Amino acid sequence: AISSACGAATAAYAQLTSGVTMEADAADTQQCWLREKLAPEMASIQKAPEPVVELYFRLYKIIEKEIFKIVNTGYGPGKLVLLGGITINMPHPM
């Protein structure tokens, strides 16, 4: 079963594997952006032993790359720390 850990990623995965071409929707730019970025990765994601796990790792790398494109590191001698993570929803009591 597909995880619902990230509803937008899950929806993008389902849309990209449905065989239906999705139209761009100005009212849902996040979904359009996810589909655009994930589309070139789908063949590798689907071949992975755990496609949904691969989906989230690929998406993390895509977002990390986008963040580094917009981060300003020319502000002086200080340090900039970017934290990222993957949240795993587990059943109670874990």
Helix content: 40-55%
Rg value: 16 Å
Low-confidence stretches: none
The overall pLDDT, averaged over residues, is: 84
Q: What is the straight-line distance between the termini?
A: 20 Å
Estimate the strand proportion: under 5%
- Main sheet specs: none
Question: How many DSSP helices?
Answer: 4
Order of helices and strands: HHHH
- So what's the overall shape? globular
Instruction: Kindly name the structural category.
Output: mainly alpha
Tell me the number of strands. 0
Overview of the molecule:
Helix 1 (7-17) crosses helix 2. The model has no long low-confidence stretch (mean pLDDT 84). This protein is globular. It has helices at 7-17, 29-38, 42-47, 51-70. It is mainly alpha-helical.
